[in-house]
Amino acid sequence: MNVSLWIDERGRRCPIPVISLARAQTMWLRDGFSTQEVVGVLADDPAAQYDIPAWCRLKGAEFQGTVAPPDGGPGTGYIVRFSTSRQED
Amino acid sequence: MAGAVAAAYTRASELAWADPARLHHHGRQSALFLDTARASLAAGIAAATGSSIGAEQVFFAPNMRLASLWAAQGFLGAPRFAASAIETLALIDGVSEAAPTLQILPVDERGAVIHPQRDDFGDPDSVVLAIQAANVEIGTRQDLKALSAAGFRLLVDASQSLGRIPVSTDRSVLLVATSDWGGPAGVVVIAVQAAARWSCPLPAVGGWIGGRADVPAVVAAATALELTLPELQTQSARQFALIDRLRVSIRAAIPDVAFAGDEQDRLPHILNCSILYVSGESLVIELDRRGYLVASGSACVADSDRASHVLAAIGGFTGGNLRISLPPDCSEDTIDSFVDTLVEVVAQLRQGAGL
Fold it and tell me: How many domains does chain B have?
């Protein structure tokens, strides 16, 4: 798994982690699908375990599962792949 | 409580203050108030469910957790228990105290319980399924008829459902909080249908289980049901259409909203949706400032600081959650003004999110 961007939102509550993920998707769309295809969101807000996978289903992204944070720190790493499949409203 | 219900409560507090278990004349007067209210509630529930329920088949508990515990303990024949993953925590807690091996049934993404098969359970008649007629958070209805036809015994939580949708099978035990129809918070009714094979697990003077009856509260509950029940049915058809209008308007006016539950097979008066990129807490506070009282299943609003287990179980989005329940006098104009307000609130809250 090649994470091209880590977004560290540990210590921040809902809706911040999902907003940051959505911003990353907006940037990826703007940049012409070239970079940052797989992103990891580091979060320790318990709501992220439901809301990041649900957001992916709603926004046409692919939730690839969770990993331990690469810095060995607290929280969970949520791996999301942006794809060019249709965006749902 | 509405004026007439509060008045009934006050009058009963003055005249029926004594313990109805006492033999002196004040006690007998309390017992008379309690018996009358119990018969009235039985008649109302019988009318709402289209089944025959007599006064002696109605019992009272002070809250849903104890009602669930005692209702579970009353089932004869030592059945096993199962409950869906989206039952209320009060019901799960109460039933699992009576039945520690309570099995949890999964639900689909609309919140419909995946019906257990005979192979999973053996004889369905040896199993009691504890299940809401319709989920109180997201509104999705359950197919009680099919579960009953499959042979399962049912402990039906009729909260928000009684009088609005069919909740009856001929051999289930019903639970319903009287606050649902404008009664006091401290009375939950257990209504036992004739073929349910159920016996009250504790002494119950006048139907009040396990202690001294709160007679004024039962009287107020009966008055509230008498006043509300005739309204519910006409109200429900109108509200069903209003919820459609509300959903269509929100969908058209606000991007990035996830709706939970089933659009058709649902309670008439509840809409549940999650508005992405805003917090449930700020939605509730900003709508309250503008005169709208809404609930939310988001973690930041819940008293447990945990997101709604219902939204979690259906794979829903838990942030920015709104549970909208229509007031009885709600009109199309109310809906339209609410949506205008919601649009304004969401725009304000999303400002600065940089999306």
Answer: 2
